[in-house]
Design brief:
Elements: H1 2-6, H2 13-20, H3 25-33, H4 36-40, H5 45-65, H6 76-93, H7 98-120, H8 125-145, H9 147-150, H10 175-196, H11 199-209, H12 221-247, H13 257-270, H14 276-295, H15 300-314, H16 318-330
Helix pairs in contact: 5-10, 5-12, 5-13, 5-14, 6-7, 6-12, 7-12, 10-12, 11-12, 13-14, 13-16, 14-15, 14-16
Length: 331
């Protein structure tokens, strides 16, 4: 009995972390599948780039919602800060270099995330939802009030993104946009994968399950939450910057509540606390929206709602959670 207890993953965190960091054949196949649009769906590369950007945004939310238990309805604040950082640099100051723009957007959004994290860690449950929602709405109104800087309801004009490394030009067909967005998504995914499959990630899971017990084992849960919230904000800022760079447009819509709500729906569809759930949810949501809007432009959201109800009723842990349960049953 004692040996069986010692051999469990809960008693051997180092072994658990090593096992979680190994790549599986399914993960390799998943990322290879992201290259299929280049070969089979070249007409949809612009849509594919938007999916990659949205998946990155969903990934940033999953980092705090799925692993740390921070329910947020205002994460578009950081997405919008990243988008406007790049847009203002280009339209107001003539700087359109994409790579440095990504880093600066991550810095601005990360600083905003760090500043707001001191308020986030003080509240829980319903109060947490209200605080994040309030911060998002305040940022939206601030952007509208600063119309001389943000362009207000008209958005910014005159945005121009330079060639990547001075060579790769953003074309109308979306080859460069999708390649660029996919590479950034993959690099940020690697960062998130390392974070959640580490001792820090284990601490986040402990906070999500029972935040009151963490101080008893010597864990400074507020510090952990501030760090992960800052990282999540920075990644969301990168996603917003990608949107501006690949479309050369930015409006107040990037700060809207609808964008925050949509990404939560994507996580519910794909499954929270799985990383890949954020990507799968974004793919399903955006492809369904694109196809359903073409069929019925007025009532496409009705079908999205029905899909969401179906997933919640029959797969409460999302599509990936439902698939994982089926695999365990077969075993």
């Amino acid at each position: 009995m004692l040996q069986s207890q010692v051999s469990t993953p809960a008693m051997q965190p180092v072994a658990w972390i090593r096992r979680r960091n190994r790549w599986t054949i399914f993960e390799v196949l998943f990322w290879l599948a992201t290259l299929l649009p280049f070969c089979f769906f070249p007409a949809y590369l612009n849509l594919a780039s938007q999916i990659a950007i949205t998946a990155l945004f969903a990934l940033s939310v999953d980092l705090v919602l799925g692993y740390a238990g921070i329910v947020t309805l205002g994460h578009a604040m950081f997405f919008g800060l990243g988008a406007f950082t790049v847009g203002i640099l280009s339209s107001r100051y003539g700087w359109g270099e994409p790579i440095s723009g990504l880093f600066l957007a991550a810095l601005v959004a990360g600083l905003a995330g760090f500043a707001s994290s001191f308020l986030i860690v003080r509240v829980q449950h319903l109060a947490l939802i209200m605080v994040t929602l309030g911060l998002g709405l305040l940022t939206f109104e601030l952007g509208n009030a600063l119309s001389w800087l943000t362009g207000g309801t008209d958005g910014l004009t005159g945005i121009s993104t330079w060639n990547i490394f001075g060579y790769f030009r953003f074309d109308l067909w979306g080859y460069t946009a999708y390649s660029y967005s996919l590479i950034v998504l993959f690099l940020c995914f690697l960062l998130c994968r390392v974070i959640v499959n580490s001792s820090f990630g284990l601490a986040l899971r402990g906070i999500r399950e029972n935040v009151k017990r963490m101080p008893a084992i010597g864990s400074d849960y507020r510090w952990h939450l501030r760090v992960v919230y800052t990282i999540s904000a920075a990644i969301a800022g990168v996603a917003g910057a990608l949107l501006t760079q690949t479309t050369n447009t930015v409006t107040l819509e990037v700060l809207s509540f609808q964008r925050s709500a949509d990404v939560v729906v994507m996580l519910i569809l794909g499954g929270t606390g799985r990383l890949y759930g954020a990507i799968v949810g974004a793919v399903i949501f955006l492809i369904a929206r694109d196809q359903l809007a073409g069929i019925n432009p007025q009532y496409w959201f009705l079908w999205i709602g029905l899909l969401l109800m179906f997933v919640v009723m029959f797969m409460p842990k999302g599509i990936l959670g439902g698939l994982a349960r089926l695999v365990r049953r077969e075993e």
